Amino acid sequence: MTDLLGDVLRRTSRTFYLSLAILPRALREPVGLAYLLARATDSVADTRLIPHPDRRAHLETLRKAYAGAPADVGAVGRACAPHQTLAAERELLTRVDEALTRVERLPAPDRDAVRGVLATITDGQLFDLERFPGDSPATLAALETADELDRYTFLVAGCVGEFWTVIHLAHRPRLAGWNRAAMSGRGIRFGKALQLTNVLRDVPADLRQGRCYLPARELTGLRLTPRDLLDPTATPRARPLLDRLLGTTLAHYDEAWRYTLAIPRAEWRMRLACAWPLLIGLATLAAIARHPDPLAAGRGIKISRSAVRGILARSIALVWSDAALRGEAARLSSPLRGLREERTV
Predict the structure, then answer these.
(1) What is the pLDDT of residues 288-304, one digit of tens each?
(2) Structural domains of the chain, with CATH
(3) Does the first or last residue of the chain, that is N or C, have fewer Cβ atoms within 10 Å of its Cβ?
């Protein structure tokens, strides 16, 4: 049987696996188990061949199990695993009980941290299912306000930055000088930066699945409705909203870099684990900004594998220097900032 934190995790998330693999050994199990179990809830929430009420029931089962209460997670796997297109996700859903057994064996502080972040993420998945009742353009629904979007990004990603901070503070004595509250706040914004990048990248695909994460009230101010975004000729009118969200995302990235540069140089593994998703995320955000109409892109906007390899290679040489890391972040974000400035002139 393949190892959950090895082959299964690698096949479910190649990018996150890189960050996990570089972490100090004591951190890999709690962080990896939290990721895998969160991925299980995501797979259940997105199983389109299962009716929404059944998906919600399965998520409630997982929520109970993640909190340590008796729950039939095997039934969730039997119901949802056959509908997954990826073999790794099918395997993961049939091995949730194994992952939970490993969570139970963690030291109590790690176990509590994993349970806490999973409770929040599962709340986010349930919120998503309640807010978006269908899976097609015919049932298109939208988040209502910018505050609702901010809350969503916290539930599914910002809380991970908080968890990451707590778990590292518990294991890395070199972080003893950190202000826990301040760094947790920056960690939350770290997660929000990455999630907002995903939101902006995935607008076309989400619209086709009946989900509009662009707030309806913000669209109304541009004389648009969520349904208007299904018409490619109308989407350029949403550019002012896109630019505002790009600005919000950039501000989150700025805080995420402050978080990363506050990591002592001797904690180079943690530095790389943070720098990699930020650098890849910034490059992706710049690609979104450069696209002539990202809200109507036929395919998901993402950077090439060769670009990712280049980012990883350069960052290994730069990880020891605050100035060098700042310079690399500035290099990736400056075209994005320039495009926004041109459009606001």
Answers:
(1) 988 888 887 767 788 88
(2) 1-131 (1.10.600.10), 133-345 (1.10.600.10)
(3) C
